[in-house]
Specification:
GO terms for molecular function: acyltransferase activity, transferring groups other than amino-acyl groups. Keywords: Acyltransferase, Transferase. The protein has 2 domains: 85 residues, Gcn5-related N-acetyltransferase (GNAT) (Aminopeptidase), CATH 3.40.630.30; 142 residues, 3-Layer(aba) Sandwich (Aminopeptidase), CATH 3.40.630.30. 26% of the residues lie in helices and 37% in strands. It is built from 5 helices and 12 strands. The strands form 2 sheets. It has an 8-stranded mixed β-sheet with strand order 1-2-3-4-5-12-6-11. Strands 7-8-9-10 form a 4-stranded antiparallel β-sheet. Helix 1 links the parallel strand 4 and strand 5. The protein is elongated and about 65 Å long. The N and C termini lie far apart (52 Å).
Length: 246
């Protein structure tokens, strides 16, 4: 006689304010997390192998959290993108990912050097953030742009003019390779080649350390950033999409 064995029931448990677990027979078979970005938006992530656990985690998180809610997905991962769309999310914006070789070049115009003054750096960071908020808005900025509570000067290269910092490059979190987390220039100093000079300096420095390429993201609706990427020989390698449920 054949016996039938049913799969253990999956239970969704909220284990912290912004964390959920999917439990099967007391084993964690899926995790969900919500994280707050600098502009206050909540981004969701779910890690599980099975569609059913994904759907149940997404349902529990959407029921518990205030909307709108966002997530970011590699556009090549069509299965994950479909899971979020089944949960009610829709594409809001797209970022193109570039890889640029760290070939030698010549900085131009202004003084480019590693950051040494945290007060000047924070003043520039505050100014850039205010300019972004007053113009395109932080919702259009790359997904990995973060607002650090304390600034690690070792991760910044700056452009200086008349005793002030007017532009910066920050090295971002490393995943598969070295990344550029942010390139920014004061609005009143733009269109003078400062962004290109900053990027050239950083690429030269990384080249000297034996690093052959770096990657970064650009919003597909930002023609100035796309032109800068093209101007330094960057090659488009993929894209991510930001999805939202309202």
């Amino acid at each position: 006689m054949n016996s039938l064995h049913s799969e253990p029931a999956v239970v969704i448990t909220r284990v912290a304010e912004h964390q959920w677990h999917a439990l099967s027979d007391d084993r964690v078979v899926g995790r969900g997390e919500a994280s707050t970005r600098p502009d206050g938006r909540l981004f969701l992530s779910i890690d599980t192998w099975h569609d059913a656990e994904f759907a149940r985690l997404a349902s529990a998180m959407l029921a518990a959290l205030p909307r709108p809610l966002y997530t970011v997905v590699d556009e090549a991962d069509s299965a994950l993108k479909t899971q979020w769309e089944r949960a009610g999310f829709a594409i809001r914006r797209r970022e193109w990912e570039y890889v640029v070789p760290t070939s030698p070049g010549s900085p131009a115009g202004v003084t480019i050097a590693p950051a040494t003054d945290e007060d000047l750096l924070r003043s520039l960071d505050d100014a850039v953030r205010a300019e972004v908020s007053a113009s395109v808005g932080w919702s259009s900025m790359p997904a990995e742009v973060l607002a650090p509570a304390t600034m690690d000067l070792a991760k910044y290269v700056v452009a200086s003019e008349s005793g002030a910092y007017v532009g910066l490059v920050r090295l971002g979190p490393v995943r598969r390779q070295t990344r550029l987390g942010l390139i920014a220039v004061r609005a009143d100093r733009q269109r003078r080649g400062i962004g290109r000079a900053l990027l050239t300096y950083v690429l030269d420095s990384l080249y000297g350390k034996g690093i052959e390429s770096v990657s970064f993201e650009v919003d597909e609706g930002n023609p100035a950033a796309i032109a800068l990427a093209s101007g330094v020989g960057a090659r488009r390698t993929g894209s991510t999409v930001e999805l939202v449920v309202r």
